[in-house]
Protein: Methylisocitrate lyase
Amino acid sequence: MTSLLAAATSAADKRVAFRAGLTSGRIQRFPGAFNPLVARLIQEIGFEGAYVSGAVLSADLALPDIGLTTLTEVAGRGQQIARVTDLPVLIDADTGFGEPMSAARTVTVMEDAGLAGLHLEDQVNPKRCGHLDGKAVVPAADMVRRLRAAVSARRDPNFVICARTDAAGIEGIDAAIERARAYADAGADLIFTEALHTAADFEKFRAAVSIPLLANMTEFGKSELLTAEVLESMGYNAVIYPVSTLRLAMYAAEVGLREIFEQGTQSGLLDRMQHRSRLYELLRYERYNEFDSEIFNFTLGGNQ
Structure:
């Protein structure tokens, strides 16, 4: 029953798996999960992990990605997602929700929520979506303090602390590389460089930084969409597809709703809908029925 209502794999084991994956020589693919059911689908298909995007969580609340969400909201959604999957889950913790002490508390809350890792970025508060113009970054020394506070608060040494730098689009790639090196020295386990443009940019960054690197393959942004195989051949250790599932779902929902509005029926959409039987399969409905039968189908002994 344990693996029915929640994942069978412990948070500690998921963190071990995440770290092992980062040093395996195989790229770790983390699609974004906008809800727990999508995380279960990501696992079933065979990906190595799931990602919880701050931009997606904001959008789910009908808010822009400008730092309006709270630690409680983000950790709560992260816990819901991590609970149902045996995969490691990486979560976007924005700038740590405040000053260095807040970043430290964020680590403890995310650990308690069962996440395998988080990333902190070097933007100023309030942050902006990483692929928009008009971003600003804090001085590197401020981000180093943010990271050191986060690392010091970690209780499980396998919890992955990823440092994201948004400096490439503001100060240039060379400055972003210098920041990445400083962040690695501050204790970051993984570097996420945001909004590089071309394959050559990704290669330059990889050649200059010694610790594991994460690439962001988000659609409609500044980065060329490189395949996982190309990124792996460059030496990247992880890739996220943060908003893909939300974009797919929202496009389908809008098309369908417009047809229902115009036609007065959904009958022409059935071949584009997930069937009830497939939903029940993902929810493991039959196993719940089996559990009910085992609990409630019994006979009383003669002494009762």
